[in-house]
Amino acid sequence: MNWINDPNGPMYYNGIYHLFYQYNPKGAVWGNIVWAHSVSKDMVNWEALEPAIYPSESFDINGCWSGSATVLPENKPVIFYTGIDPNQYQVQNYAVPENLSDPYLRKWVKPADNPIVAADETMNKTAFRDPTTAWKIGGHWRMVVASRRKQRGMAYLYRSRDFRKWIKAKHPLHSVPNTGMFECADFFPVSLSGDTGLDNSAFGPNKHVLKVSLDLTRYEYYTIGSYFPEARDKYVVGKGFVDGWNGLRFDYGNFYASKTFFDPSKNRRILWGWTNESDAAQDDAQKGWAGLQAIPRKVWLDPSGKQLLQWPIEEIETLRGQNVQLSNQELKSGEHIEVKGITAAQVDVDITFSIPNLDKAEPFDPSWTNAQDLCGLKGSTVQGGVGPFGLLTLASEKLEEYTPVFFRVFTGLYKHVVLLCSDSGSSSLRKEGLYKPSFAGFVDVDLDDTYKISLRTLIDHSVVESFGAGGKTCITSRVYPLVAVFDDAHLFVFNNGTETITADVKAWSMAKPDKMNN
């Protein structure tokens, strides 16, 4: 319980997964931040340990903010983190385990040569934070620190031969005008084919991903491009990628300050994100709902090379229990059919929708460039031709409350345009104080080939995480129903388009982990 935000430096070390995260041990509001520390053998069952680091030295006396972890080739883990010094300047520090023989690495030590990186006089000393996981190519280690120069987002690059003395590169790894402050930057390689992950220091025939969180907008975006370490030590965004506010996102919903790490035990890259809440949910926060880490996801490059794919880690499926299936379920215009026999407040549901006829899809207006605005304009109750169709999650029996997750198909100039929405506008009967947005993203899929599209949604009481078209478009929502809770929550499949849709549904009641961070 209490306030939780950014996942810091997740890592795998000697058979144990470690997750560090920003935490206020004294209350359900931001402040008194320490690096909380939890450990797991499967990323499902977690045990909370004492904080790894907390303000104690001059270089972090006013806060231990976000950072990363790196496991050195000698199998020695190191934490990088941002400390707030007596001048309120943001400086970069490191910490090391006190006892490497302790499998849980409970205690961490801050060496006396901190801070290892401080902003120079040309930089913004109060906007300089969140050091990345380091990588090594040739004789130099490298890391990035996020910042801004006026309204230009900056990813400053630092190099070191010994991992202790760091020198700023002549040029930043990357910078973008008019984005505002970069924070929680993440830079990692991805394989050109297959779903195998790569260590951060891997370099060769692969692509690189640069993700930044945007302090101004409170969402993130990423690009895919090429990294040139020796000649210029620069990252160059690939052709066709939007490098700015309208770029691709890991998640088009309530998902921020994400961090990835390479899992050598299964050769995969894992993505963590913080699903934050609105300030108005503080009543629930006092009860222990304040901020959650989203379900960890495997992430890899789509075969098209145009985006990343994400999918819940396979270990989550160990929580599956009672299974219900609806095969070839016809959904006529205006119908909603309940998926019975499962715990609708805690469920994993995987659906394939078949669309017999695309001829009646609505024409797509090229001015509809903002998916979220379009979802607000054409919600789940606004009849279309092909769609809206999807799920009514966390629904009350008479639909006074529900959170719809749905597709809508349009006829575009060259191919069909697919929109995925997760709309919390009707999620709660609470009249005041809740942030209830309609989140949405376009889905890059060619329906003319298959006439099918899939949706997987994991529901956990106040969290709805959805993965459209095999993880092409992902949306996380935080919702706070009053009626549709526990045994009074229901799950429906629905279709409000004029065209009949067919659904193949698989749903599993989900058990609680044996250890829920206790």
From TrEMBL:
Span of domain Glycosyl hydrolase family 32 N-terminal: 2-312
Keyword Acetylation: no
Keyword terms: Glycosidase, Hydrolase
Highest taxon of the lineage: Eukaryota
Gene3D superfamilies, per database record: Exo-inulinase, domain 1, Glycosyl hydrolase domain, family 43
Gene Ontology molecular function terms on file: hydrolase activity, hydrolyzing O-glycosyl compounds
Glycosyl hydrolase family 32 C-terminal domain segment(s): 315-509
InterPro entries associated with the record: ConA-like_dom_sf, Fructan_Metab_Enzymes, Glyco_hydro_32, Glyco_hydro_32_C, Glyco_hydro_32_N, Glyco_hydro_beta-prop_sf
Protein's GO biological process: carbohydrate metabolic process
Keyword Hydrolase in record: yes
Family listed: Belongs to the glycosyl hydrolase 32 family.
The name this protein goes by in its record: Beta-fructofuranosidase, insoluble isoenzyme 1 isoform X2
Natural source organism: Gossypium hirsutum
